[in-house]
Predict the structure.
Amino acid sequence: MRMLPVCVFVWFLIGIPGVPTRADDTKKDQEKLQGTWSVVSGERDGQPNDSIKNDKLVISGDKITVKKAAGSEETPVTFTLDATKKPKQMDVKAEGMTLLAIYELDGDNLKLCFARGAERPTDFTAKAGSERMSAVLKRDK
């Protein structure tokens, strides 16, 4: 009789074949993010960040390239996702440092919030003194 709880526990840990897992959620989000996104609005440390308005993020695989509205293109950075967290998390790696971020994906709308400090944001605000930058993006058709 003691075997039944152990079997159920092991079954829970390894998952049921064909049943989606939390890792599948991350993979699905990774796939949904692919493509070109236009920045609709941005905020940095409590101030509107108009310098990024109309910039584009091009996401391909695990790379993000920023295409500035002025026509220049920045070096791609890599990112990883964790859709199992609330809010969902993104780590962006560039030039030996990691930016901690959160994201929210809703169809063709994407919200991002990055922290320049050591702590990951817990919401999508970028209040004065927070050392955060937030952005709202829309998928290009």
